[in-house]
Specification:
586 residues; 10 helices; seven-stranded antiparallel sheet
């Protein structure tokens, strides 16, 4: 029937040395920008940065879809008084839609909902809030009068601060939002900090036994540095362990941080300057495999290349290269020290056979995801555990001992169809195994309860990796009847295959299980997906050499930047608009 657009002025909070890492992240505010809005879910505490409202909720625009003609543009002014001190860097907006006279869909964030609100709060972790970053963050104090102008066209809604005036920023860097979420993983930071402290204690004790003139300088290598958060933690730990200004002045940087994304490195360098650690940490944006052997060898290597399945970010390949080129041959420590992959068999999607009276099970053909929130799936009934937890692979990173492929026997605890193996890691951060980092699902008991007596830390958000089976590879099992599965790993991913699986070779030379027969709709989907990926590769390659294509792309990005209210002749998805804008203007 109709809809209202609601908004609220927010501060998406950047740490100012108050988090577990003790780092001042104020420079991150300058990365919060885009030509269009971004989408997210302010109710999802795991996957959303912390925020607070600096003013009340406003009803901005109202639309009546029953009218024969709708206005295609409009403008209004919003005035409010700041209710607390903060940095106004974002306007979040959403809709409240009236489906019938008595039924409405209200996406107001739970924290901002009025107690008297009669509409039902939405559930689920889908994106339902839009966030427009302001042209420049505005420092506000409690009681300040704020004037915001809101406007809309047929393609977008836009907000701009009219007063107080703020200094315009020369935007030169932006980073993906998922990277900003990683700096909020306090338990992970604490696990690394404790392990680094412990390792440095041993290293400094060993150095004291060497005559001072023969004593090598302390060197730490950090792989997968990202925004250099753990590099700064390591540098501060080194200072506390006894490294002083004189030693740094004589021997140079204590920490050598490696991060391949050059635009991320720009922001990381600013963060280092803001925290007075730019003399302690050296940032390198080269691939460690392409570096020459370093004359000054490291005594400690820190590796953050861990994903929910342990191996997905290339820890095996890159850690081995860094060990050879940058570390002492036999006298170096590794954080993390060891890693174990655990798994269990599951049945997903059986509940889709009856959803509000409809059979939605064909969607099970599209289970190609690599990550899953197992706790949530078990809680809402979309997953069913069919086996006990079993150990898959065990890696010793410090001593460079890797497991071999083998066969595991599984005894099903329930009858059903195994269409997925969900797996997760348990990482010992120190050689003694006293400090653990694990994404073990909270709803599944540990295989060994001795784990709970150790210093356990969990990443946030808590996600697990998944290997989905399709078609003929879905295995029907009976309770108590033992089955076998072959497990192994490639350079970056564990592999689960039923015995006797036929293998084929891809164009790249990689051997994979032969794809099972698919329904026609899935084949069409795969064809479109392949064509899209091929087109992206051609465009990326062409933009490097084709000046005409480069010029057209730049002109399109410029139009997006110069026409903030949108142009009906250039309708484009907001996320793609941001991508093009950042591609050409950063």
């Amino acid at each position: 029937m109709g809809a209202s657009v609601m908004c609220a002025p927010l501060e998406i909070i950047c740490g100012r040395g108050t988090g577990a890492d003790g780092v001042d992240w104020r420079s991150v505010d300058e990365t919060r920008w885009g030509a269009f809005y971004e989408v997210g879910n302010l109710d999802d505490q795991q996957c959303q940065e912390p925020w607070r409202a600096l003013g009340p909720v406003h009803e901005v625009f109202e639309f009546d879809f029953t009218e024969s003609e709708l206005k295609l543009s409009g403008q209004t002014d919003l005035h409010f008084t700041a209710k607390e001190n903060g940095v106004l860097n974002c306007i979040s907006f959403w809709y409240r839609m009236d489906l019938t006279a008595n039924v409405s869909l209200d996406h107001t964030p739970a924290e901002l909902r009025s107690p008297s609100c009669s509409s039902t709060a939405p559930v689920g972790n889908y994106s339902r809030h839009a966030m427009q970053w302001l042209a420049a963050p505005v420092e506000v104090s409690k009681g300040d009068e704020i004037h915001i102008r809101a406007s809309y066209s047929r393609s977008r809604i836009r907000f701009e601060v009219m007063s107080p005036e703020s200094k315009k920023l020369d935007r030169k860097v932006s980073v993906p939002r998922w990277l900003l979420l990683r700096i909020r993983e306090e338990q992970k930071v604490e696990a690394y900090r404790k392990a680094i402290d412990k390792a440095l204690g041993k290293i400094m004790e060993a150095r004291e036994q060497i005559p001072k003139l023969d004593r090598p300088p302390l060197r730490i290598v950090h792989l997968g540095a990202g925004l250099a958060q753990m590099s700064m933690v390591a540098a501060r730990c080194a200072r506390e362990a006894g490294v002083d200004d004189k030693e740094i002045e004589t021997h140079g940087y204590t920490v050598v941080a490696l991060e391949e994304m050059p635009k991320v490195v720009k922001l990381a360098r600013r963060a280092l300057r803001d925290n007075d650690l730019d003399q302690d940490v050296f940032l390198c944006s080269e691939d460690v495999r392409k570096l020459p052997s370093q004359p000054q060898r490291a005594q400690l290597i820190i590796c953050e290349l861990i994903d929910p399945g342990l191996l997905g970010e290339g820890i095996l390949v890159l850690l081995n290269a860094a060990r050879i080129k940058m570390c002492n041959a036999f006298e170096h420590q590794v954080v993390p020290s060891r890693g174990t992959i655990w798994a269990a068999a599951f049945e997903f999607g059986e509940s889709l056979k009856s959803r509000h009276g409809f059979d939605m099970s064909p969607f099970n053909h599209y289970r190609t995801n690599l990550m899953v929130d197992l706790d949530n799936c078990l809680a809402n009934g979309t997953a069913r555990q069919l086996s006990n937890v079993f150990e898959v692979l065990k890696f010793d990173f410090e001593n460079n001992k890797m497991p071999s492929a083998h066969t595991i026997k599984i005894t099903p605890t329930e009858s059903g169809k195994i269409n997925a193996i969900v797996f997760w890691y348990e990482v010992a951060m120190d050689p003694e195994g006293e400090i653990l980092l694990t994404n073990w699902p909270e709803s599944i008991p540990p295989a060994d309860f001795a784990m709970m007596e150790k210093d356990v830390h969990r990443p946030n958000p808590l996600r697990q990796a998944v290997c989905n089976f399709q078609g003929d590879y879905i295995k029907e099992v009976e309770k108590g009847e033992q089955i076998e599965i072959d497990v192994g790993y490639s350079q970056a991913w564990p592999q689960f295959q039923w015995p006797g699986t036929e293998m084929v070779q891809k164009e790249s030379g990689e051997r994979i299980a032969k794809p099972p027969p698919m329904p026609r709709h899935r084949l069409t989907f795969e064809k479109l997906k392949m064509e899209t990926e091929d087109l992206e590769k051609k465009l990326q390659h062409g933009l490097m050499f084709d000046e005409e294509m480069l010029g057209d792309g730049y002109a399109a990005a410029e139009r997006i930047a110069l026409e903030p209210n949108g142009n009906p002749n250039y309708l484009i998805d907001p996320q793609n608009a941001n991508y093009f804008h950042m591609m050409f203007f950063l």
